[in-house]
Design a protein that fits this description.
With about 160 residues, the protein is mostly helical. It has 5 helices and 3 strands. A 3-stranded antiparallel β-sheet has the order 1-2-3, with helices on one face. A hairpin with a 2-residue loop joins strand 2 and strand 3. Helix 1 packs antiparallel against helix 2 and helix 1 runs parallel beside helix 4. It starts with a helix and ends with a helix.
């Protein structure tokens, strides 16, 4: 096997199993590795014999890449699902809006949002009504007292005339 056959076998084995970027990085790495080993005095046969088959190297790269993606997805899912609001974008172009693991864009999420809004509006009205009640309880007696005083003054003025 020569360098071109090795690189071709490696590329074909990786194709469709990892991203284009991983394929190009791997091919570039092994081309550089082979060139450097030959420049340091090794023959092409020795270098390729030491490396083994391109398909075996590709299998190792594919497995390592899949494990890395799985760990990355698991960690990012764990981090995102535990913290605040985030969106997950679907293949059909829609997005699932979530708070932690709670999916707000589902029917129960929408019901929850509506109930929370109704509760918030109810609390606001209750606070306003409570303030109004306090004001009425303080101002109404004072107003009634002022009306009574005004009536007394009016009556006294009428009697004096």
């Amino acid at each position: 096997m020569n360098r071109e056959e090795f690189i071709s076998e490696l590329r074909e084995s990786l194709n469709g199993n990892v991203s284009r970027e991983v394929i190009e990085d791997t091919i570039s790495y092994y081309n550089d590795y082979i060139r450097d080993a030959i420049n340091n005095g090794a023959s092409e046969e020795e270098v390729l014999g030491a490396l083994g088959r391109g398909s075996f190297i590709a299998k190792t790269i594919i497995e390592a890449n899949n494990k890395k993606e799985t760990v990355h997805k698991t960690r990012s899912e764990d981090n995102n699902s535990e913290k605040g609001f985030h969106a997950e974008f679907n293949d059909d172009g829609t997005a699932d809006i979530k708070y932690g693991k709670f999916k707000l864009s589902s029917w129960y999420g929408k019901v929850f949002i509506i109930l929370a809004a109704v509760l918030l509006i109810g609390v606001i009205f209750a606070v306003i009504a409570g303030l109004f009640a306090i004001i009425i309880n303080v101002i109404l007696p004072i107003a009634l007292l002022l009306v009574v005083i005004w009536i007394i003054v009016y009556v006294v003025k009428m009697i004096i005339k």
